[in-house]
């Protein structure tokens, strides 16, 4: 779809979701982790778990099919199981094909976890869009308070989670590729469910779901090099300039022209990483009057010159002339 902005963002920020471990446990159990960086997800394939992490007052109760996404947390404590006796310490195992996981009893709690790796643009966009902990329910059922769309999205989270677990527990041809794809699809379904189930904080994720601002967003994304002004963007959304500017800032967290400038830099980063386009041509394509104006804007936003960024992103040593 031409206006599928979430897919566009996923492509630009190069989201990679990686499953890193899992376990099956019966009886009282506890699992801990420290040194967490970036985004981490905890998914309950079956059973239940209680999750605690820094910066969150009350524990999260996770049911089968639920996913918790931890954003910038430093530690986690998960526990579950029923019965008498002390809690047994369990650690996630990378070898998902072990007979202990494959042969997990019906009353076992099965939990998988992983981390989401992002490029610089992805960290700036995705980490800002999510709260410290995002709880996505995979067990929602239609009722008076639940829309059919929400229930369908929850079912998709649950289905993707089970397909992912099926791949990691079976030694089949192509499983490594499938695990990467399902891991990324799981993150996509989690974001969709999060949009449906939660009042989003200001940011690009909330902006993508705002129907009133979508026409203006489509203009900026489809033709980022045009000199869009507030009048053009407000007219596209059938709003006055004042109302448009206020609503955009409330939804996106930044003024519309600041968003446009940052979006241009995100596109520039991808072009510099992935292609051999000349900086002058890229500047003209993105609407800058000169290569110098573009380089100044890029350095102000990214922290280094376009050429130095290109060499660093490709793991090469930058020549002296690229330092300016």
Question: Fraction of residues in helices?
Answer: 40-55%
- Basic shape: globular
Number of helices: 13
Ends distance: 40 Å
Instruction: Note poorly predicted spans.
Output: none
Radius of gyration (Å): 22 Å
CATH architectural designation of the largest domain: Sandwich
Find the structural class using helix and strand composition: alpha+beta
Number of strands: 10
CATH-level-4 superfamily name of the largest domain: Jelly Rolls
Strand order of the largest sheet: 1-9-3-6-10
Domain HTH araC/xylS-type: 214-312
Protein name: AraC family transcriptional regulator
InterPro entries: AraC_lig, AraC_XylS_family_regulators, Homeodomain-like_sf, HTH_AraC, HTH_AraC-typ_CS, Tscrpt_reg_AraC-type_HTH
Keywords: DNA-binding, Transcription, Transcription regulation
Characterization of the model:
The protein is α+β, with helices and mostly antiparallel strands and 324 residues long. It folds into two domains: 5-197, Jelly Rolls; 210-323, Arc Repressor Mutant, subunit A. The protein has 13 helices and ten strands. The strands form two sheets. It has a five-stranded antiparallel beta sheet with strand order 1-9-3-6-10, with helices on one face. A five-stranded mixed beta sheet has the order 5-4-7-2-8, with no helix packed on it. Strand 4 and strand 5 (60-63) form a beta hairpin. Helix 7 packs across helix 8 (230-236) and helix 8 crosses helix 9 (241-252). The longest helix has 23 residues, at 175-197. Keywords: DNA-binding, Transcription, Transcription regulation. It holds the Pfam family Cupin_6. This is AraC family transcriptional regulator. It comes from Streptomyces montanisoli.
